[in-house]
């Protein structure tokens, strides 16, 4: 029963994140990306700061200057700016498909930089996932969109963020890390604005989209945290890929997107290889624990 609860929470979290992405893309129709990034940073920091106050977590901390926290925050800023730009310039379904390569990049990074053991089967899965990403992007072919490279930069940056999080000391609370990361999005957005033009005052509809963007991202964070704590990670984690299902549905229903065969094939390779790599990792861990 706990596993079922964890699965449902994970699916709900992925739906929340997909909806947040949708509202970002809607807002980019009338607002520059830098301004959206500033709103996202200020709103997210305010919500997580409130959570820190509720849990009596001091926010003035030397933890901000820890090398892994600095790496995490800078990666978050680069990733956030890249993805907001990608959502503005490319299809929601395309950007979301590229995002699914993150677990494979993390596995590769953990092997190369954290010296975690990765066997030949998982290396093959990583290569297959990267092939899937190339099929989605299709460089050199007629359907290639240079703007999709923003999504690639974003997924690499957020993978570095997650690797830095793994190396962060356990005594630094997660909500505090979130406050720092969101705060850094504000100056990052301000730095982008001069290249996009002046900020615009959002109308009522756009203001609702911005509020919904922050709310669904915050709810997604809570749901994914509760999910991981509810049941066996090996059962729950594969349902992270439900995000691409929601993104495809929203892209088609809201934006009239029509993913072509290359996008479907590339997405299937990315998701399939990611699932295989995760299940293989779980199996190896169980075998080692049994010895």
TrEMBL record:
Residues 5-137, 148-273 form the EamA domain. The chain crosses the membrane at residues 7-24, 36-54, 96-114, 176-195, 207-228, 240-256, 262-279. Keywords: Membrane, Transmembrane, Transmembrane helix. InterPro entries: EamA_dom, EmrE-like. It holds the Pfam family EamA. GO terms for cellular component: membrane. It comes from the Bacteria. PANTHER family: ACYL-MALONYL CONDENSING ENZYME-RELATED (PTHR22911), BLR2811 PROTEIN (PTHR22911:SF103). This is Riboflavin transporter. It comes from Pseudoruegeria aquimaris. The gene is ribN_4.
